[in-house]
Amino acid sequence: MSPRLVVTVAGRSAVTDLGRARGPAFGLPVNGALDQYSARVANILVANDENAPIIEATAFDVAFVPDTDVLIAVTGASMEVTVDGCARPMWEPVPVVAGQEVRLASMTAGMRTYVAVHGSFDVPDLLGSCAPDTVIGFGTVLADGAAIALRARTAAPVNPYFGISLFHFGVDRPHFGDTAYVDVTDGPDIEEFAGTSRRLFDAPYRVSTQSDHIGLRMTGSLPERVRADEMISRGIPVGAIEVPPGDELLVLHRGRGVTAGYPVLAVATSTSLDALGQVRPEASVVFRGVTVDQAGRDARAWRERLDALRDRVATVYSCIGADDLVPLRPLERNLP
Which residues form the Carboxyltransferase domain (predicted)? Predict the structure, then answer.
């Protein structure tokens, strides 16, 4: 029988990856991990491809028991991580012996936690991605008692009986607080809001409980569109900030439809999408305007941090002789 992981507490979790890059060409949203940085770090720490399937746990506790030795990494929203009752660190590789229970509990900050297992999960995919799509009913959503097949058996590379992590890779950990700071560039329709567009930056917005992976609804001081004519539906980017009729601002995330017909006031930068993926209902969001050039520099710095981490991980695993744990090099990666 293939090695597997049995879910004892599913909470609200699913197996996902970085998203369905081919989806928009077929009218499907990209979906995938809402906090791409945390998801990528989790996979790097266990020497997986950054796009390998991982567990995304939203808000609630999760527990599972592997039937083979595994190496895991937990990143994202802050939770208490234990292995058979012993505390283990987030943002570091953690060896787990077959039969031990891994439990993630008491999320204290952020909204989504990620669990990567070296070798990853063997789950169905659609257009090259396992990312769940709630509209078409595709994906691997976890349930109590479910078993997820692992792609390979892998021995834990270090002594599992130490109470502290044997690795300290110095991962840059994002801060998850009650207020999220989100950088945005001007949207294509900003001129339609005339002198009111600056309201976006004047005061914080509050996230509605109606928010989800498709988009975040926010209340606050809304810019006013000066034109009254209808807009023709068109392609819309992830991160588009729309001002539909009514009393809410709408920020589209990775589960959004590929077309929409509301005016786009601004667009959240790719790095700020990670922060939006960790925002809780009732939290505050402060928007900050940046240029496209600055957004590009931030994205390159974001990429460089991940590359530097991958190099550190590769060096350590090579030094301990764990050659099967050396992460893939950039030219070997297949990222969406």
Answer: 25-305
pLDDT of the residue at 329: 56
Tell me, what's the pLDDT at 319?
79
pTM listed for this prediction: 0.92
pLDDT digit string, tens, across residues 106-123 = 999 999 999 999 999 999
Q: Looking at residue 261, what is its pLDDT?
A: 79
Low-confidence residues in the chain, pLDDT < 70: 155-166, 321-323, 326-336
Determine the residue type at 257.
Answer: G
